[in-house]
Amino acid sequence: MITWREEFRLGVEEIDKQHKRIFDIANEAYDLLKDEFHLDKYDRIVDIIKDLKNYAVYHFDYEENYMKSIGYRKLLSHKVLHDDFKEKINNIDLDKVDENQDEYIKEILNFVVDWIESHILKTDRLYAEKDLKT
Fold first, then answer.
1. Can you list the pairs that 125-130 forms with residues at least 24 positions away whose Cβ atoms lie under 8 Å?
2. 98 is in an annotated binding site
3. Residues 67-101 pLDDT 10s
4. 38 labeled part of a ligand binding site
5. 63 a known binding residue?
6. Which residue segments constitute the domains of the chain, with CATH numbers given?
């Protein structure tokens, strides 16, 4: 289970709310991985991937517009990271997912948890701190 902690809060209410959504998606994947009674998890994995795609489109657009509104100078390099996330999610091979479902859930979980720890805690914090100074 991936738990929202105060250290993830950036102080931008709407963005914090959106960040909580990626925790929800990660927990859906975690719960699915631990579900021993669900033998064929393919459809639910596809739903999680769709949720990640939708999240990326909505959240990244909102966040990039926010950074633009505060004059954040590292917007373009930040956008590259967002684009990398979207590319990774969009290039998931669903045939491979079907072949080894639990392994793929673990891969998705690792990717999302790493994103939370590296992107939200470090990269997003930079624009939040910039905003607090202005």
1. 125/10, 126/74, 127/66, 127/67, 127/70, 127/72, 127/74, 127/78, 128/10, 128/11, 128/12, 128/15, 130/70, 130/72
2. no
3. 999 999 999 999 999 999 999 999 999 999 999 99
4. no
5. yes
6. 10-133 (1.20.120.50)
